[in-house]
Each structure stands twice: as structure tokens, then as C-alpha cells.
Amino acid sequence: MRTRTSLLGLAFVSPALALLFAFFLMPVVLTTVFAFTNMSTSTGITGGSHVITGNLLRDLGNAGVDDDIVAALSEGSFSVTPETLAAAAEAGVEPRFLGEIESSLMGQSFEDARSFESALKALPSRPTRIRDLKLATEPFERSILNTRYSSRAAMETAIASMVPDAPVDTVSAIAEASYTGWRWIDGGNFQTLLDRPETIRIVLNTVFYVAATLAFNVFVGLFLAITTFYLPKTGAGFFSVLWLLPRITPVVLYAVMWKWFTWDNGFLYVIAEQLGLPAFNYMKGSVPTAWATIILVNGFVGASFGMILFSGALRAIPVQQLWASEVDGASRWQQIRRIILPQLRWPILFVTSYQTLSLLSSYEQIWLTTNGGPGSTTTVWALEAFNTALNNYTGNLEYGMGAAMALILVAVGLILSILYLRMFRFDELVNKPRIEF
Amino acid sequence: MQVTLKNFTKTFDDTTVIDSMNLAVNDGEMLALLGPSGCGKSTTLFAICGIHRINGGQILFGDRDVSDVPSQKRNVGVVFQNYALYPHLTVFENIAFPLSVRGDSKPDIEREVRAIAALTHIEELLARRPAQLSGGQQQRVALARALVRKPDVLLLDEPLANLDAKLRLEMRSEIRRIQLETGITAILVTHDQVEAMSMCDRIAIMNKGEILQIATPTDMYRAPVNKFVAGFLGNPPIVMLEGRTSGDGRFLVKEGTSLPLPARLAGMPGDTPLSLGVRPEHFGAAGANRVEGTISFVEPQGRETLFDVTLDDGVVLRSIQPARDDVVFGQKVVWPLDAEKLLAFDVSGRAV
Ligand SMILES: Nc1ncnc2c1ncn2[C@@H]1O[C@H](COP(=O)(O)OP(=O)(O)O)[C@@H](O)[C@H]1O
Ligand SMILES: [Mg+2]
């Protein structure tokens, strides 16, 4: 009986568990996996093959691989083997001539076209025209450059055949380096981030962006909630809806509105011009105005969120408490500071923590407005991660690096959540309204 | 401090709740504002402490017109019906609140709070929060907070309504004790006549925004000005009989029974329509007149027993007597009626 009920329970929660797994856990797991690879557009996300390219050879040379080997790999060679003979037959080389090649040159290799050609010229049935002779050499050419090998072993064999005297470990290192798919690079992405000079700049930008926007959210939200609370009822409803607009406007439309507001010949521009103030593209024209734009764009969305929560909490305070504080002699300000604000503690902490987390991972509005500019002065971590992984100008999207950056955000978010949960004890927040008067 | 309302008028939107009320509360007196729910008692109280702005008339504290003084400056202590304690503050901080917003020094606050906590017997609760207190304890804290800055007037809005029966009894005498010890002028709002009668020096009885009578509890009980007051006071309530005078010192209930009129009304001309009020304690105890009927209901109340007696023509009189079990349901009884104590009201409900 007990097992049946627990099975039944499991059956009931399994959809929730599946959802949790698919939409909450999987993204984090995938991000974590990607973060430790060098996946990018060029590596693809499935497996790759082994190719030696000109670039790779240059890199190998720079990395200290013997110049002779590099040179050997870059050149083609000519060898007479059953395969090349078959290829030549296919290519339509004259059979008698082929027979002579087979009988006299079988198993031989030639380093360059010239020596192979002179060996061929020694044969009786050689073509008379020099052009036919050159054509006949082509099927025998074996070059490793830009040839795809599906496995590493095949690549190693090919290298060894090109440079028979190369040491085994060099061969295997070259084969390894020739892999075109993605691979595990342990903490390589994180090391790269640590080494990059822009990283600290982006971190500081992010901290500034989150702190400033958060402060705006909370203070403006509180200010609006308290002023509308003291406003006569009729006006309050109108203002609530007004302040909700940023929240309910589609984000793209909202961003466009801000563009119109701050851009060249936009609303502010025209007004500033009329007043003789500096008029320029405020959104992208200077660092302080770019920051101001971003903070306001995000700030108003968050402020209306805060205002709704704060207003609700305010209205939950019994009016008798406010009356009591008035007859106790408290001025309006004392009433706000000593009766109202302490009782808004939970919503304030909730808005603070919730907004920290959502601001940390938000980039849409920045992307749609300043796009991190001017330069990268307003680029925040989430935007950089997005650009790295999904929106690179050069076309090479670095999934692995982007995932590493996202993973850092997830980690920071997790740590902050735990801290917030600890500090503010959300369970108490949920139980709080039990106290009734 | 004497509190005077002169032609006090209060309207909400277009509804006039109180129209031109006059009331004077003497210095050091505890006055009850008694009336049914919704008659405007709280409204009056909130006007006195300044929470509601008045729409007409004057409110005087002593000789000072406080009509336009904000509630912060009136120096009144208010105990709200739901106590309105600040949930985020400890009991100590709750009581200290009026002093600390005034900017008193820490030692002063400490001393005053301790003193008032001693008066209200809550010294051991000072560190707790309101949520950790019982209803009676919250009540004491609210009282302490209202009294701590020695207000000129103490206003209590249904202070006992949220307490259970036993606590209500206890707090009734406690509030009265504290009021007497401090000598503060107090106004108690209540819909419970027992509270009003047991706690207060005088009662102002209200109905529909109007004060009907102001008197001491005994006077009001003995000589109510009208039918409403007579009906509102007394438990078990008075029985009202409709009928006419006979012209020869008797009263004919419309069902037929004839009852004697008090001597002072014996000279009334015949056929005058009247209401005659019979309180239960005036039937079945003493008196010269005998009334015969059948016991139709018995309710033992411990110390007393309540009877309903149905007369031959169907009129029901009520009687309360020291507990007795010699009379049972259905029994015929002949009980005395104290005619001199009967109350009579004319057609407009005024006492005659
Ligand atoms: N803030 C208000 N707005 C409108 N009407 C009110 C308000 N407060 C009280 N009233 C009305 O005034 C009348 C008296 O209310 P109140 O003084 O609270 O009665 P009570 O005697 O029960 O304390 C009631 O009819 C009530 O509906
Ligand atoms: Mg009331």
C-alpha cells in the first residue's frame, strides 16, 4: 500500500520533474559541458576530421616543429603504388606506358615533379607531347596538404608516408593538431578570460550596471509606491497604470521609443538644441549619457515592478496603524520611516534580490539601445557572452567561450541566491502574513 | 481636561453621519458613547482625536479649540478596536513610540515606559513582539502606549470587543482602575450596555448619529428618555406592551389584558395610546398588583432564573428572580407586578 501511494506520488510529480529537468537543469548542464570545450562555428558541434592546412603548418613551424618536416608536409610527392597506378588508369593514361611505369618504377617515390618527370622520360612509351607527360604525372601526386582524413590513424599513416624519418611523437602531435572538430580544453576558456585585459572592464561595467539600475529600481519604486499611496484614490489608479507601461510595452518597441527619445534629432536632441544645451546622440554619443540611457531604460521597467509589489505591501498595512502613529505624534516622514518602511522590509529585499539576479543576466535592452557602446564602455558580461556565443561580427561564433561566460554568470547567480536566501530567509517571507491585527 | 463638542457635524462624501452633535465630557470623567453598530460612535471618536476632519462645529479641549489642530498635536491617547500595535516593534518600542517621535531622551523613555508598564502589569512582556501576545496582553500594551505620554484625553474604541468573555470581565475592571488611578478624561466607545454601565461615570447613548440621552448609568436605566434607550439598556431586555389608557388609572393592552398604571400617570385621559415597558425584575418579585399566567419558558442562569409568563390573552411578560426550581414549565402562577416601576412612552416614543 505504501509503495503504491509513493509510486502514485511519483507519477504525479514526474511531469514536473521532467519539466524541471528539460528546462531548468538541461540548459545548465549543457552550458557546463560547452564551457569546457573550444566549440565554435569552425569546429562545429558534432565531430570533425583531420586536415593539415597551410595555417596549421605555419603554426606548427612557429611551435618549433622541424622546418624540414614542415617543408616536407607542404610539398607534394610522387609515388608509384598500386593505388596511384589505378588512379592513373582511371585518368586515361595510355596502358602501355602505364605497364612500363609499373614494371620499372613500382614502389618508388619522387620528391618533386621534375625528378618524377625525368624518370618517366626514360621510359620507351612516354608521350611525345610534354603536356601529356605532365598530365600523366598528376595521378601519381600525393599531397597531404588540405586532404581530409577521417581518423587520426589515417592522418598519422599519411604523415609517416610523407616524412618517413620524422619521430613518432612529432607525427602524433601533428596529427592531433590537425583535428578540425571541437575538443575538451579543460579550463582553457576561463584562463583566456583571466588573461584578457577587457575582462576586468566588463566585470566593472556589470557591477556598476547592476548596482545603479538596482538602486534606481528600488528607490524610484518605493518613491512611486509611497507617493501614490498618499494620493487620493482616483488619481492613484491612473498613475499605477501609467507606471506599468514600461513593463507591458514589448521590449523592442520600448527600446525604439528610447531611441527616438535620445537619438540625433530625437526628442531630447531637439529640446536641448532649442535650449542651447549640447545636443548629440545621447544614447551612443558619450559614455555618461550612454550609461544614463541604459540605467533609465532598465530602471523604469524594474521600478514599475518594484512599485507594484511595494504598493501591494503598503495596502496590506492596516490603516489603524497609520492612524495610531499619527495620534502618537508621528509626522508624515516619521510615519514613513518608522512604520511603513520597516514593514516593507520583505518586499524591498525581495525586489533587491530578484532584480540583482535578473539584471545580472539581462542584456536585451542594452543590446537594443547602446549595444555596449561607445566602444565597449557599456558592455556588460551577459551582452559580451551573447556576442561571443551568438552574435559575432566575424562570423565565428565561439560557443565554448560563450558558454564559459554564461557559466560564470550562473555560478555568480547561484552564490548570490544562496546568500540572499540565507540573509533574508525567504521561508519567513512566505509565512509572514500570518500575523494579523 | 474637559472635552466639548459643539454642533459637531461629519459627512462622508454625501452622507451625513453625524449632524450637529453636542457633548461635554467633564474633566477626569469616563464617559461611554453607547449605541448600536454603525451609529457613528467611532466617527465621533476619530473626530475628537483628529483622524477625521470635521465638516462643521467645534471641538474644544478645555478652552482650546482644536478643530483644526492635526492629530499629532492634540495630545490624545487612542486605543483602537484592533489595538493597531506596530508588528515590527517590540512591546517596549511600541510603548516608547510616542515618546521617541517626540524626541525624548533615552533615560526618560526608559523610565516612562517602565512606569506605564508597571501600571498596566506588562513589565515581563517588554521584549516580546505583538504577535507573541494574547489578546488581553495586546490590549494592555495598546493601553500603555496610549497613556505613556500622559495625554489630555484617552479614547477607547470598543477596547473589549475582541476579547473572550473572561478576559473582557478582567479588562473591564483593569481599564477602569487605570483610568481612576491616572485621573484621565476618557471616552469609551462601545455597543455593549454592560460595559458602558459597569465602567463609566456617565453614558451618552447614541442612535443614528444622534445623542439621545446623557446620564449616569443608574439614572439612565431607571429613567430612560425614550423607548429606544429603555430597550437598549437592560439584560434581559424590557418587555414593551402596546395599548391605551382606560381613563381610570389602568392600561388596556391591545390583546385585552388590563394592567395598572403607575400612580403618576393615573390622571391621564382615557384612550391615550401608550407603550408600557415592564422590566423583568419588576414582575414576580414585589408589588401590590397580581397578574395570573402560565409559565411558557424557563431559563436557569445559575444565580437567577428567567421565566416567560403567558397571560390568558397571549401577552408575554418576562420575570427574573433569584434561582428557584419550584416553578416548572406549564405551571399556572399568580405573581406580583410593581406598577410604580413601570415605564410609559407616548406614540412618538418619548417617556411620559
Ligand atoms: N471612511 C468612511 N467613509 C464612508 N462612510 C463611513 C466611513 N467611516 C464610517 N462611515 C459610515 O459612517 C457610519 C458610522 O460609522 P462608525 O462611526 O464606524 O459606526 P460605529 O458606531 O459602529 O463605530 C456608518 O454608516 C459607516 O458606514
Ligand atoms: Mg466602531
Automatic annotation (TrEMBL), chain A:
Pfam families: BPD_transp_1. It is found in: Cell membrane. GO terms for biological process: transmembrane transport. The keyword RNA-binding does not apply. It is a multi-pass membrane protein. Residues 203-420 form the ABC transmembrane type-1 domain. The chain crosses the membrane at residues 207-231, 238-261, 290-310, 344-363, 399-421. InterPro entries: ABC_transporter_permease, MetI-like, MetI-like_sf. Keywords: Cell membrane, Membrane, Transmembrane, Transmembrane helix, Transport. GO terms for cellular component: plasma membrane. It comes from the Bacteria. Belongs to the binding-protein-dependent transport system permease family. This is ABC transporter permease.
TrEMBL record, chain B:
PANTHER family: MALTODEXTRIN IMPORT ATP-BINDING PROTEIN MSMX, OSMOPROTECTIVE COMPOUNDS UPTAKE ATP-BINDING PROTEIN GGTA. GO terms for molecular function: ABC-type transporter activity; ATP binding; ATP hydrolysis activity. Gene3D superfamilies: 2.40.50.100, Nucleic acid-binding proteins, P-loop containing nucleotide triphosphate hydrolases. It comes from Devosia riboflavina. Its main location: membrane. PROSITE patterns: ABC_TRANSPORTER_1 (PS00211), ABC_TRANSPORTER_2 (PS50893). Residues 3-233 form the ABC transporter domain. Keywords: ATP-binding, Nucleotide-binding, Transport. This is ABC transporter. It is a peripheral membrane protein. Belongs to the ABC transporter superfamily. It is found in: Cell inner membrane. It holds the Pfam family ABC_tran. One of its GO terms (cellular component) is ATP-binding cassette (ABC) transporter complex, substrate-binding subunit-containing.
